[in-house]
Amino acid sequence: MCTCVFSLLCPVIVIQLSPAPAPSQRAALQLPLANDGGGSRSSSSESSPQHHSYPSRPRHMLNLPTPQYGLVKSLENAEIDQKLQEIMKQTGYLKIDGQRYPAEVSDLISEGEIGSGTCGQVFKVRFKKTGHVIAVKQMRRTGNKDENKRILMDLDVVLKSHDCPYIIQCYGAIVTNTDVFIAMELMGTCAEKLKKRIQGPIPERILGKMTVAIVSALLYLKEKHGVIHRDVKPSNILLDNKGQIKLCDFGISGRLVDSKAKTRSAGCAAYMAPERIDPPDPSKPDYDIRADVWSLGISLVELATGQFPYKNCKTDFEVLTKVLQEDPPSLPLSMDFSLDFQSFVKDCLTKDHRKRPKYHKLLEHSFIRRYEVLVVDVAGWFQAVMERTESPRSSQCYSQHQLHSLFSR
After folding, report:
1. In the chain, which end has fewer C-beta atoms inside a 10 angstrom radius, N or C?
2. Predicted confidence (pLDDT) per residue in 230-274, tens digit
3. Residue 42 in contact with residue 113, Cβ under 8 Å?
4. How far from chain centre, in Å, is Cα 288?
5. Are strands 179-184 and 254-257 parallel, antiparallel or unpaired?
6. Does the pLDDT of residue 317 top 80, yes or no?
7. Active-site residue 146, yes or no?
8. 1 or 83, which is more confident?
9. Burial of 151 (0-12, 13-18, 19+ CB in 10 A)
10. In which residue ranges is the amino acid composition biased (Low complexity) (predicted)?
């Protein structure tokens, strides 16, 4: 195993940009609750991105070292300051259904936590002034440069992506001395939780529509904003009962310079592309949007089979080793996937990134072209799944045959 793989597991050296709150101040999130004065949370509500931990499936986020160059650091700090200045001009109000409303933290009535991740916690919230039910991501402001950068990157991307139907919509943000609150549309659940509800594979037709949405979102980020997502995985793909499919969580997205990423940010080892694990020169990262194409391929294999392809690994290191040393995962022939789907996944999981297709090439693939025009009742399927798997007992009774039969009529 090359030494650069070991470097992925080294701790990040951080620079403190502003005083960090004391540990005791960071323990609780102060959203006013609708039903009581405590910190009640709803475990049954599902929506925004989550990072789960499974004994047989690594989900930890890697802290990747960034190049230690003074110029790079000063540019990053200047970029963070500039973004903060721009965002501060847009805070203090929410724009919902075309109407703009002044907003403070006291206007947000929590109805329970619905997700948590590396960048913060997500709550189902009622906006007191209008009664709208939305999702609010709450992130702590700290002196950690990388955390600050994640917060600002997430905000920057969602605020600018209001014209893309495949990216989670942002209503606005509220910034306080200790927290950043990002108000977003409330979706139904993520693909990760949906897979767990079904306890098996997601039908190819649903994945076809999902693929069209995610590739379109990634292309939009690259073409419109020069951004690479860097954390494509099932927990960052959201669906709702309207049949919408959207990409979320842009905290570790990166700017592209000459179409290439020049920094090594955090990422989930389970979905990381080979060229990010073992770059030619670890001190000078140089990869492009094809790293996200690999992550999409891994996600599709997981959702199509109902099992993570590296499920027998117990550590991130085992996953990284398998990604580098073994043949890429593929869709099993025994599951009767279409030839188009098998071919598309194979293209996404081309190990040599120089031969892996970029977004425009992917959009020409027969699999995507078919699902761009094919009518699929994603909303009906989603609603049926959510209704019939509302309780643990009912989810066991709802067989894969029944789920797939929704499309046999």
Report:
1. C
2. 889 999 999 999 999 999 887 765 543 434 344 445 567 789 888
3. yes
4. 18
5. unpaired
6. yes
7. no
8. 83
9. buried
10. 41-56
Backbone angles phi, psi at 227, to 5 degrees: -125, 140
The pLDDT tens digits of the residues spanning 160-191 come to 888 999 999 999 999 888 888 989 999 999 99
Read off φ and ψ for residue 61, nearest 5 degrees: -90, 135
Termini Cα distance of the chain: 51
pLDDT-based confidence at 391, cuts 50/70/90? Answer: low
Q: Is the pLDDT of residue 406 over 60?
A: no
DSSP element (H, E) containing 147: helix 145-160
Q: Would you mind telling me the total number of residues written for the chain in this entry?
A: 409
Active-site hit among 156, 231, 288, 316:
231
pLDDT score of 49 more than 50 = no
Q: Report the SS3 class of residue 184.
A: strand
pLDDT higher than 60, residue 381? yes
Q: pTM for the full model?
A: 0.74
- Measured CA to CA, the distance from residue 407 to residue 409 in angstroms comes to 6
> Which 3 state secondary structure label does DSSP give 136?
strand
CB 229, CB 218: distance < 8 Å: yes
Residue pair 338/323 in contact (Cβ under 8 Å)? The answer is no
* 9, 12, 400 from 6: Cα distances, Å: 6, 13, 41
Residue with tokens 């959510």: 386
Structure tokens at 159: 């605020």
- Strand-pairing partners, residue 170, are 184
Task: Report how far residue 361's alpha carbon sits from residue 229's, in angstroms, rounded to the nearest whole number.
Answer: 18
In the chain, the amino acid numbered 202 is I
The Cβ-side half-sphere exposure at 305, using a 13 Å CA radius, reads 19
Q: Side-chain half-sphere of 222: how many Cα atoms within 13 Å?
A: 22
